[in-house]
UniProtKB/TrEMBL annotation:
This is DUF3347 domain-containing protein. It comes from the Bacteria. It comes from Flavisolibacter ginsenosidimutans. Residues 54-144 form the DUF3347 domain. Pfam families: DUF3347 (PF11827).
Length: 206
């Protein structure tokens, strides 16, 4: 009887050892690492309104690329409505005057859009577009829009081949809205003329 008991004890010990040592090695799975999500300091409605504005601004830029003055005028009206939907009220809780500064840039941008919508010739439309870009750039940096990385780009010869003009793009590749595809002198030969002057990045990502 005693040998049987000893056998059972040893067998039990062996099973326990297998469960504690061997089995975990065979069944362990390393959990995949997950990238931490960046939390925006703005509300979803605010971010969505800015994103819509930037999407229509991109449409406006492409219409300048195509020398589409009629399309430019129509999109300028859409952009004005987009900016009306960017509610800056949530910035009022900031005590450093960000709300007032941001509101001034919005108002200035809407004034430039009114010029774009009312002008028939593409040269004054482009001049207003350059001013619009400056105000949107300042607005994005003031509110620290943090949903996406953007690029401030510049053509060094946008006006009379001597004066620069700027635009905001979601891509690093240059697609010049001042030279475009139908320039009377250069045709489409200067579509890639320009460079990125600044990366607008408040996303907090490396």
């Amino acid at each position: 009887m005693r040998p049987v008991i000893i056998f059972l004890v040893l067998a039990g010990a062996g099973i326990i050892a297998w469960l504690l040592v061997v089995r975990p090695k065979n069944t362990r799975h390393d959990a995949p690492s997950q990238e931490a999500l960046t939390v925006s300091k703005h509300t979803d409605s605010f971010n969505n309104a800015v994103a819509t504005t930037l999407n229509d601004y991109g449409k406006l830029t492409e219409q300048f690329v195509n020398w589409d003055s009629a399309g430019v005028a129509a999109t300028a009206q859409t952009l004005t409505k987009d900016l009306d939907n960017v509610k800056l009220d949530e910035l009022k809780k900031d005590t450093s005057g960000i709300y007032e500064t941001a509101q001034a840039f919005v108002d200035n941008a809407k004034g430039e859009l009114q010029t774009i919508a009312s002008e028939k010739a593409i040269r004054p439309q482009r001049e207003a577009f350059n001013n619009l870009t400056d105000n949107l750039h300042q607005l994005l940096n003031t509110v620290r829009y943090d949903r996406e990385k953007l690029y401030l780009q510049e053509c060094p010869m946008a006006f009379d081949d001597t004066k620069p003009g700027q635009w905001i793009s979601k891509k690093e590749e240059i697609r010049n809205p001042y030279m475009g595809l139908h320039h009377p002198t250069y045709g489409k030969g200067m579509i890639t003329c320009g460079e990125t002057k600044q990366t607008i990045d408040h996303t907090g990502k490396e």
